[in-house]
Amino acid sequence: MDILSVIQLKPETWPLPIMAFLRITTLFFFLPIFGDQVVPIRLRILLGLAFTFFLYPLVADKMYHPERLLQWSAVTLAVATFHEVFFGFAVGYAAKLVIFGVSVASHTVGINMGFQVASMFSPGLNDHESSFSVMKNWFAIILILTLNIHHIFIEGLVKSFVYVPIAAIPDKVALMKTVIEIAQEAFELGLRLGAPLIAVQILINISLGLLNRALPSLNVFIVSFPLSFLITMIILFISIASFLKLLGTYGMEKEVAWFETMRRVFVPMNSQ
User: Fold this and answer.
1) Phi, psi at residue 144, to the nearest 5°?
2) At 120, which helix (H) or strand (E)?
3) 0.70 exceeded by pTM
4) Is residue 272 part of a domain?
5) Fewer CB atoms < 10 Å away: N or C end of the chain?
């Protein structure tokens, strides 16, 4: 199907590109980077419209949709609209897993480094965070773009129209299980990303405690902040290679599990 065929739609199939537009645009409202408040709403809508215009002809011939959905009624259209918006929200919110994991790690490390006072506004999380946390979040975003992890979500978006039908109803049990798995993976990823820095900070605190016992006249409180900052930054730069490898491996694992999750959670309406 070429681009001109999008304009020349049959009367019974005209809602399909609209449903595709709703799915894609809702996804852009919640994806990392694109869903940040610094990105204007009009730009997100234009991105959704552009992606729909170029992607729909590629997947229209392969798009699976129940035959009875071609007989559109007001109720069917409303239900399909809700399901497409919900699908975009669910997938987009799950895509923020990497950013949430990095935020958990950087927030924990930033507090131990004494950066809880020096807070900045994080547009990605719409909240104030320590300057170290904001720096590491932006670092993770740069790595995501550099390692082409965002291509996984775009590829999943294209293939979602093949594997997940229009107006697919989420399986409630599988959906709750997926939400729990996402929360577990976010905590695990944050712990793995911040483990070297957290371990170093624990050793620093133990060493300073022993030093305070040995030299009571030494002002450990004044020494602890610059010492902790210096050593933590050194370990951070040393562990950048492991940080890259972990994010790359995680991205490949998510690419494998992406479609299996969609098949498990979203099922066709005619199978309910």
Assistant:
1) -60, -45
2) strand 119-122
3) no
4) no
5) C
pLDDT for 181 equals: 75
In this prediction, what percent of the chain has a pLDDT beyond 90? Answer: 0
Evaluate whether residue 17 is within a structural domain: yes
Tell me the percentage of the chain whose pLDDT exceeds 70: 64
Q: How far apart are CA 25 and CA 88, in angstroms?
A: 8
Range of the domain at 244: 11-262
**Would you say 153 and 255 are in contact if contact means Cβ atoms under 8 Å apart?**
no
* In-domain check, residue 2: no
* Number of domain units in the chain: 1
**Residue 136 to residues 101, 107, 124, 217, 245: CA-CA distances in angstroms?**
11, 9, 12, 36, 16
- Cβ(136)–Cβ(102) under 8 Å? yes
The rounded distance, in Å, linking the Cα atoms of 110 and 116 is 7
Strand segments, DSSP code E, in 30-139 are 119-122, 127-130
Please identify which residue in the block is written with the tokens 């994080």: 122
Rg (CA), the chain: 23
Residue 4 lies in a domain: no
User: What is d(CA 207, CA 6) in angstroms, rounded to the nearest whole number?
Assistant: 68
> 266 - beta bridge partners?
170
Residue pair 113/232 in contact by the 8 Å Cβ criterion: yes
Which residues are CB-contacts of 223 (< 8 A; sequence separation ≥ 6)?
208
